[in-house]
Design a protein that fits this description.
The protein is of the alpha/beta class. Helices cover 40% and strands 14% of the residues.
């Protein structure tokens, strides 16, 4: 059938055509304009109607299938899935869009959670309850309890090389609240745009937009953020993941670190350092120290317990220059009255007794075995593919051979009950590099990793030759 669908695209936008098509279809589903079961035009027909390359539509459809918005059935075309409601699907900063239940979920985030140290946490919480003064049940200090800020200052200095004090730290409700507060302060000072890494977290870009700040994509290569590209803009703020770039996993080189700090000083700028995966580092050798130590007066260091403990705790922290911290706390006073006290005190106990360090050693040992299993499975089943970056965090970036049809691989894998995200989903602009997969691996059994990669190989080998070589 020669179906027609009205899709709005802007050709001179910084957002890629693929991303625009994805966003438009999502919004139409959320608004109820595209109903469950609605059949969409073929990729060839829609490409002709929009006067774009067919690969643009194939990639958009493929990612929407992987995210659970659409389903592609042999002989029946592409349809809006039947189980979605007409309510808006708004991803959280670090969340994932909903997908159908699958056997192996390789997406970063979502079910990719660390093992929670229940016994240690219960013991720490009990100690916090027993020792808490009556004032602990009053409204908490906006910056966080003094006990946790002291323990955090000592821990971050010891484990990350962060140069801060308890007085320069604020405990926040996860990185999302910290970023929201920073956006509020920047907006009040006339800063309406922030540089972000490309590729980077798509939810983070959306979050910034919803905070009233325009994200400006900046290229990332094997040495990390391209600081020369940043310097060519009129930006005065940038958000980076220097230790373990998300999603490529590369580490910001020493030269780039020095260039970035020099840029901040020259333009009176601000660097937001997102140390999102904390102590999850199992590569041989020393983990890179915090960028913040090079210029504490120009860098806000942001950390979180979401990847190392649980995102449900809503625990994060900011180490900021004193004058900026004061402005952040005034901004916070407009939103809430602080972070829940007993959780802070329990976390302080976890830090004080060295239990977090012990927990991280266990997590790193487990994640290391999963990383090795992924590397071995890729070598065995995906010839020409390569796992990039240091062994760290809960995910890995798998670069695929250039002939691979990434979108077809992602959608085909979902039909075989394997959910994985293609690299294209993380790019704000049209990608020039090789196709890739962003694989959350740390939560899976080793046998599951091997089986999932084997499925990916089978899907790739069964794709039509003309599609694989496109």
């Amino acid at each position: 059938m020669s179906l027609h669908m009205a899709v709005e695209v802007v050709r001179d936008s910084e957002v890629s055509l693929t991303a625009q098509i994805q966003s438009f279809i999502k919004s139409e589903i959320a608004a109820g304009s595209l109903h469950a079961g609605t059949r969409l035009p073929s990729s060839r027909r829609l490409a002709d109607d929009l006067d774009v390359s067919r690969s643009v539509v194939v990639e958009a459809y493929g990612q929407l299938v992987a995210e659970g918005y659409l389903e592609a059935v042999q002989g029946a075309g592409t349809r809006v899935v039947g189980h979605l409601t007409t309510q808006a699907v708004v991803p959280t900063l670090l969340g994932e869009d909903r997908v159908p239940e699958v056997r192996w979920d390789l997406r970063p985030g979502g079910g990719n959670l660390p093992d929670f140290p229940r016994r240690d946490w219960l013991a720490c919480y009990e100690r916090a309850l027993r020792s808490a003064a009556p004032s602990a049940h009053a409204y908490p200090p906006l910056a966080g309890t003094p006990a946790l800020r002291l323990e955090l200052s000592q821990y971050l200095g010891r484990a990350r090389g962060v140069r801060t004090t308890a007085e320069q730290l604020a405990v926040v409700g996860g990185f999302s609240q910290g970023l929201d507060l920073l956006c509020g302060v920047l907006r009040r000072e006339g800063v309406d745009a922030i540089g972000v890494e490309d590729p980077g977290h798509p939810g983070q870009r959306q979050f910034l937009q919803e905070c009233g700040v325009r994200p400006v994509p900046l290229p990332v290569d094997e040495a990390g953020l391209d600081v020369t590209a940043l310097a060519a803009t009129d930006l005065r703020a940038v958000l980076v993941t220097p230790a373990h770039q998300f999603p490529t996993g590369v580490t910001l080189s020493e030269d780039r670190r020095e260039q970035l700090v020099r840029w901040a000083r020259e333009v009176d700028g601000l660097i937001i350092e997102d140390d999102y995966d904390g102590g999850l580092w199992y590569e041989r050798g020393q983990r890179p120290l915090a960028l913040q130590r090079l210029a504490p007066e120009r860098v806000v260091y942001a950390g979180t317990a979401s990847k190392t403990l649980a995102p449900g705790l809503r625990l994060g922290w900011l180490a900021a220059p004193p004058d900026l911290l004061d402005r952040l706390l005034r901004e916070r006073a407009r939103h809430d009255l602080g972070t829940e006290t007993l959780t802070q005190l329990a976390f302080a106990e976890l830090l004080r007794g060295g239990l977090l360090d012990r927990h991280l050693r266990k997590l790193n040992a487990r994640a290391s075995t999963r990383r090795h299993a992924l590397e071995e499975a890729v070598r065995r089943h995906l010839p020409g593919a390569e796992v990039l970056g240091p062994a760290a965090g809960l995910h890995a970036y798998v670069r695929l051979p250039r002939h691979t049809d990434e979108a077809a691989l992602v959608s085909g894998a979902l039909r075989r009950s394997v959910a994985v995200r293609g690299g294209a989903a993380f790019h704000a602009r049209p990608r020039r590099g090789a196709p890739a997969l962003v694989v959350g691996h740390a939560h899976l059994p080793r046998s599951g990793i091997t089986e999932a990669v084997r499925v990916l190989a089978e899907v790739g080998s069964r794709a039509p030759a003309e599609v694989r070589s496109r």
